[in-house]
Amino acid sequence: MPNGNIIVTDERGTRVITLRRPGKKNAITQNMYREMSRAIDTAQNNPDIRCMIVTGGSGVFTAGDDIEEFIKADASRPETLSDGAKFLYSLALNVKPIIAAVDGASIGIGTVMLFHCDYVLASNAATFSAPYINLGLVPVGAASLLVPSTMGYQRAFAMLVMGRSFTAAEAHTAGFVNTVVSPGHTEVEARKVAREICRLPAEAVATSRKLLRAPPEELTRRIDQESHLFGERLKSDEAIAAFNAFANRKKR
Ligand SMILES: C/C=C/C(=O)SCCNC(=O)CCNC(=O)[C@H](O)C(C)(C)COP(=O)(O)OP(=O)(O)OC[C@H]1O[C@@H](n2cnc3c(N)ncnc32)[C@H](O)[C@@H]1OP(=O)(O)O
């Protein structure tokens, strides 16, 4: 069932996937993961869809996984969070170019997702972090493979092990943002990039893209390894203390 927090529209060969949960900074629930997976999976064999755009609209990309769901999840049953895991597979197995439009904060899975995308536009108000460490967790989504291979070990260490945030300019220098634009302009620019891609010969795009990317089986193997460790970490004292601190932060 569509939940209203993910809006999917098809526009002249481009599927636009919009996260819309403004009251929660676009934090992603398991339902939202399901909707995003469906949008990506159903594009695979649809010849009318040439590329996709993922956007959070203006002001924020996403605050990452919904931490309230982590708190509610039964740590002995990691499958309660399995839609997130399936979404990572959808990204790894996707064969069509994805353009990301990032305006504002991109946190956790929001940032990891970008390393599976093909073209990333950011506003100069964008920030990028993957602060798994601050929650006592470890990276997911093949981040431990893709992040160092994209921007080098030391920058990856700062992001994934130290939990540092990157500005748009730093992300551009690090190589995972193609273009930095003014706030409020990421979607317009993403549509221009989409039109450019849609004009290219589709089969040659698909084959060239495949040559550039890590093999899907390598990505899914790393996703599985990370997910196993992530499941272990979810039960840890460090993670439980961090989730409770987030839940109680406004009560103090
Ligand atoms: C496997 C993948 C794992 C991950 O993705 S790990 C990363 C998880 N995400 C985070 O650690 C980020 C947590 N959120 C924040 O740090 C902050 O928020 C922001 C910096 C994004 C924004 O701060 P501010 O502008 O002060 O807004 P606000 O009052 O904190 O948030 C507005 C409402 O949004 C809810 N919210 C924000 N992020 C999340 C989240 N990740 N999960 C669940 N809810 C979230 C809040 O609670 C609040 O809601 P209410 O107004 O009802 O109190």
Plain-language structure description:
The protein is an alpha/beta fold. The chain has 11 helices and 10 strands. The chain has helices spanning 30-43, 67-72, 82-93, 109-114, 143-151, 153-161, 168-174, 186-198, 202-212, 216-234, 237-247, and strands spanning 6-11, 14-19, 51-55, 60-62, 98-102, 105-107, 119-123, 127-129, 166-167, 179-181. The strands form 2 sheets. The chain has a 6-stranded mixed beta sheet with strand order 1-2-3-5-7-10, sandwiched between helices. α1 (30-43) packs parallel to α3 (82-93) and α3 (82-93) packs antiparallel against α10 (216-234). The radius of gyration is 17 Å and the shape is globular. Residues 24-25, 27, 63-68, 84, 105, 107-109, 131-132, 135, 140 line the site of ligand A1D88. Ligand A1D88 binds next to α2 and β6. It is an enzyme of class 4 (lyase). Its main location: other. This is Enoyl-CoA hydratase. Keywords: Isomerase, Lyase, Peroxisome. GO terms for molecular function: enoyl-CoA hydratase activity.
